[in-house]
Amino acid sequence: MAPQLDAFFKSVDTEADHYIDRLAQAVAIPSISAEEERREDVIKMGHWLKGQLEQLGAHMEARDLGKQPHKEHLQLPPAIIGRYPAKKDDSKRTILVYGHYDVQPANLSDGWATEPFKLSVDNKGRMYGRGSTDDKGPVLGWVNVIESHQKSGVDFPVNLLMCFEGMEEYGSEGLDDFIIAECKPGKFFADADAVCISDNYWLGTEKPCLTYGLRGCSYYSIEIHGPGQDLHSGVFGGTAQEPMTDLVRVMSSLVDTNGTILIDGIKDLVAPVTEEEKSLYKDIAFTMDNLYESLGSKTGIFPDKERTLMGRWRYPSLSLHGVEGAFSAPGAKTVIPAKVTGKFSIRTVPDMEPDDVDKLVFAHCNKFFETLQSKNTMRVFLQHTGKWWVASPKHWNFTAAAKAVEKVWGVKPDLTREGGSIPVTLTFEQATGKNVLLLPMGSSTDAAHSINEKLDRRNYIEGIKLLGAYLHYVAEEPTH
Amino acid sequence: MAPQLDAFFKSVDTEADHYIDRLAQAVAIPSISAEEERREDVIKMGHWLKGQLEQLGAHMEARDLGKQPHKEHLQLPPAIIGRYPAKKDDSKRTILVYGHYDVQPANLSDGWATEPFKLSVDNKGRMYGRGSTDDKGPVLGWVNVIESHQKSGVDFPVNLLMCFEGMEEYGSEGLDDFIIAECKPGKFFADADAVCISDNYWLGTEKPCLTYGLRGCSYYSIEIHGPGQDLHSGVFGGTAQEPMTDLVRVMSSLVDTNGTILIDGIKDLVAPVTEEEKSLYKDIAFTMDNLYESLGSKTGIFPDKERTLMGRWRYPSLSLHGVEGAFSAPGAKTVIPAKVTGKFSIRTVPDMEPDDVDKLVFAHCNKFFETLQSKNTMRVFLQHTGKWWVASPKHWNFTAAAKAVEKVWGVKPDLTREGGSIPVTLTFEQATGKNVLLLPMGSSTDAAHSINEKLDRRNYIEGIKLLGAYLHYVAEEPTH
């Protein structure tokens, strides 16, 4: 039978201002993981979060993740892990949830309309502030779910395991090994029956979605060097082979204007589109105007929504990010850079094995560079890799979430994939061996990572209801 | 008859330590024109120089050049101009000399072995310090020439006009108009019979040279933009046309690994090599090992010295300097830059008219970009231009300088051109209508603009003698 959620929902509405105030408190702590001088604030934020949950009776631990690799003077923020209720109820399912309490850098001078570390709510209910949607809103969503169960007297439907980290915006340093260790038998996360992550966004602004796939990312550097030091183009132009000349040629051999990857063999690694899959795209709530609005231009590759969504979700892409070591400032400098490093990455999809992609990339670059017959030296290497992830959207974890969406929002959710990567998703899947669900709270216009990041009040408050409802549906969903 | 220089030379040797101390005082003033916070030091340096010359009885003026364009809060350093003797002797020729008292930026942390603003003399007589060779040593050379004439009782052979500026390392802001105005009849520089600039270097380390040609430089930007703001490659990779993809293609269409310019029509603008010119190169004191040593590698384009010197002096070259607006830091960032600007410049030679070069560059880029059929927008524009300069090395100004070199160094100088640009050279030629001579003091290993800039004690002291001897020979050279 359908869960009785009315009292819980009513409490969420009653406590809305209190929950917004809680978000304001969290936003006020500038927990920027990428900035060394903010590390104390990140750690403070972790302990503040732990305190909020302890006040609600959760069993919480701050786990030391050691020192930051390559920056041994810097302590990593702790993994804040917990269990609610504090004592496990063996009659109930156990759901592991993940979020992060660190945020991207932000300065008023970057162009923010309001102070980034002060939550500012406008008359349309848009709550501006760094971390509001990414990911403090969703993380506090779980806290508020617990509080509204207590306040409404509704029995908590599951055993909730929590894993909140403080380095997500800086590569989740130290977290993978920790998760793998804690998912082993007898350890903290061993009992998880399913995993839920709320750290992504709706495809648009009106229709909720459940996300079952992510692309991977393999990031490469092409380093070309020749002279022993930077040269003056007046003195040496026309007498020396220039690394930049070779680099732009190698970079231009990788991809064309329409995004077609020109590396031999890459497209053979991509799983073919099935007829069933083709039919999925037409129903997704997405239009070309959505794309143009988010691009801020009409410079899309494809004229139709289906091929655009496939371009984002299920085909690989190759982006050239920039050049290190060359002149990159405004103005004019007549330098011949001695060593330049081109950066590019490939978004990967099923069935591309990262090792196979590496081999094709290296072979292509080396073969192309050879045709230049340059005396300069080239080295191509992988900077980092994260594999793609695709879950089954027919799993009970997703079925439960879909029912919760319908209960709270009154519509069936879109089933989406994402073009980006959330590497921890794959880690949780592999470490627990269980289904992982991405259940977003915010919408496509939230501007995570940009200036004027916001979370709509409606998405926050209804999102708290959604997370709570999900726990009720997932508690009683048939598992066969 | 040959000038009697012995007493003057002897005084230079006697006063050597005093002249080195004068250079140390000048180096100690960090007159960095490119750094706003050093502007007071640049101005201080100008007044210090004026004071040194006034103590020797010269008539000196500090001329206001106004505010810095686009930085109206910044006062430009004055042009320090002067005349020695203070009262013109109408029986003597008038020689106008130019130098600059500002320097390139320098920080110990850039990799200097010694404090850059403290002149440090090692046991091989290498005098390290920012500005030692570029251009405080040569500028003080003229001061020391005056002092040693006074101390030795040798009659000063010419009327010396001086023009010393404080913005050479930052585009000589404000100077061109000033020179043009002061060369007009009745103005300060109106009487100049010839011009001498000491602000370049020997081709090697052992043989002095006189320089009669410089390449010009036309500096361009290729700006390509598409999306309204930077995009995340996970979300938008594979759905949007990316400006960087187009930019590397346009940049790679300009030049190849061997430095061949691929812009239609450029090579037709270049003056053909005559048989007479061909014969000049083989006698120049330069070897391929000199090139490899200064490159710090063997990545030269041509295997022979003649073609290499022609590549530097008399053929155009095109260098790609870098990209503004893309990711240029170390590490990995998965950004799709919304607007990127590629920078490149062409070193120009006779008979390339800058306007013709612009037209060919714009036409090439626009035509090539059209073949990409991109929805992005491209704009190509000229950042700045400076024309090439070639003087007649058979002019009496050069003949006199060659005699001075032979007197001081015991060898005939190489007659060289340079690959770089000294735009003020052309300004003086056009404004005075007289012959301009480049008479370098330092050697090829002085590392002007780099870390560990130095001037050899020998080049400084013998260089003072050379400048003095030049004034004697130029005073009596037949002018037919």
TrEMBL record, chains A, B:
Annotated binding of Mn(2+) 1, by residue: 134, 169, 449
What does the record say about how the cofactor binds?
Binds 2 manganese ions per subunit.
Binding of substrate, residues:
199, 232, 334, 347, 421, 449
**Domain Peptidase M20 dimerisation, residue spans:** 215-367
For this UniProt record, the keywords arranged alphabetically read as follows:
Hydrolase, Manganese, Metal-binding, Metalloprotease, Protease
Q: Which InterPro entries match?
A: ArgE/DapE_CS (IPR001261), CNDP/DUG1 (IPR017153), Cyt/Met_Dipeptidase (IPR051458), Peptidase_M20 (IPR002933), Peptidase_M20_dimer (IPR011650)
Q: Which GO terms describe its molecular function?
A: metal ion binding; metallodipeptidase activity
- According to its UniProt record, which cofactors does this protein need? Mn(2+)
Indicate whether Manganese appears among the record's keywords. yes
**Where, in this chain's numbering, is Mn(2+) 2 bound?**
100, 134, 199
Tell me the SUPFAM superfamilies matching this sequence: Zn-dependent exopeptidases
Q: One biological-process term from Gene Ontology?
A: proteolysis
An example of a Pfam family matching this protein is M20_dimer
Q: Which domain of life, per UniProt?
A: Eukaryota
- Active-site residues are 102, 168 (proton acceptor)
Query: In this chain's numbering, which residues are marked as the site (Important for catalytic activity)?
Result: 232
Q: Which CDD domains match?
A: M20_dipept_like_CNDP (cd05676)
For this chain, the family text in UniProt reads: Belongs to the peptidase M20A family.
Protein name (record): Peptidase M20 dimerisation domain-containing protein
Task: Name the species this protein comes from.
Answer: Peltaster fructicola
